[in-house]
Amino acid sequence: MKQDSLSHRLLRFYHQLASPRWFYEMSGRYLPWLAVPTLLLLISGLVWSLAFAPMDARQGNSYRIIFIHVPTSFLALLGYYVMAIAGVVALVWRMKMAFWVLRAAAPIGAVLTFISLITGAIWGKPTWGTWWVWDARITSMLILFFLYLGVITLQNAYQQEESGNRASAVLAIVGMINIPIIYKSVEWWNTLHQGATLRFVGESSMHPSMLQPLILMIVAMYLFYALVLILNLRVEILRHESRSQWVRDLASKQVSPHGI
Amino acid sequence: MAFESFADFIQMSGHGVYVWPAFMISVALLKILFFKPLWQQHQLLKTIHQQSLREKSRSMCDGGS
């Protein structure tokens, strides 16, 4: 049948994604299946990296910070892509769910970038002998942090939420300029920051006994990002749809399950 | 285990003072990221429920008079 062609199905999926109620109910159903594996992977990854990964011959035990520093840095960057793409979708197709994704993603990205910066600083002390250098990689990550803060500030700076949403989407898109600078900073400038440890093609410079827990932590962090993004988006949906009947029904069912 | 004793695990041959705070700060922040939306959702649903109850009783009073 014509109705079941791929393009039709994709279009329907797009419309469903744009429907807050559909997303809320769908995500609610599958949330435990995401949350439980995510938390288990994250906890086992932390135990592995702290207690079982072998000591590094050159850096000693301080290198263990890599297991939290690299995954959070990855997601700090990916979070910016999520925000910029949501910004484009929101502005071009005027999709309100996309604006809410932007609102949900900004604080997560800010926290992850902060973790990346602070673990980097702590790692820097025993390795480079200083907490902070104005090095290209570190400075561009600091700019990323300020971009996230700027987006959050703009979202709340206007009396009309819509103006704030639009302004923050523009900032999120313009801020994409910073992303290739972050990636290339270790190649373009002479820097203290080490080059990429992980390579998708060719051999990584890391021993498997260290690479395995690192990959586990990266996978766990990807899942964790998806989990908290969905949780935040659900809050945004409830906040914006609080006057609609389905949310009221839901509220009365959750607050007093046996009815009043 | 990569360590010989528990004390060794805590000290990490001198690097424990860097590794442990780095992990503890990170885990604390990740915990906030996870629990904050759950708490917000709980509070929101409570407020929405109270508000709809208030409106319902108001409309019932209007209907009665």
The protein's oligomeric status is heterodimer
Structural class of chain A: mainly alpha
**Largest beta sheet of chain B, briefly?**
none
Helix content of chain B: over 70%
- Globally, the shape of chain A reads globular
Task: Name the helix and strand elements of chain A from N-terminus to C-terminus, one letter apiece.
Answer: HHHHHHHHH
> What is the count of β-strands of chain A?
0
Please bin the fraction of helical residues of chain A. over 70%
Please report the two chains with the greatest interface, counting residues with C-beta closer than 8 angstroms to the partner's C-beta: A-B, 45 and 35 residues
Mean pLDDT of chain B equals: 90
pLDDT < 50 stretches of chain B? none
The end-to-end span of chain A amounts to 48 Å
Low-confidence stretches of chain A: none
Question: Could you spell the SSE succession of chain B in H and E letters?
Answer: HH
> What would you call the shape of chain B?
rod-shaped
**Rg of chain A, please?**
21 Å
**What proportion of the residues of chain A form beta strands (DSSP E)?**
under 5%
Terminal Cα span of chain B:
76 Å
Question: Can you give a write-up of this model?
Answer:
The complex is a heterodimer of chains A (260) and B (65). Chain A has 260 residues and is mainly alpha-helical. In chain A, helix 5 runs antiparallel to helix 7. The radius of gyration of chain A is 21 Å and the shape is globular. Chain B has 65 residues and is mostly helical. Chain B is 85% helix and 0% strand. The longest helix of chain B is centred in the middle third of the chain and has 49 residues. Chain B is rod-shaped, with a radius of gyration of 26 Å. At the A-B interface, helix 2, helix 3, helix 4, helix 8 and helix 9 of A face helix 2 of B.
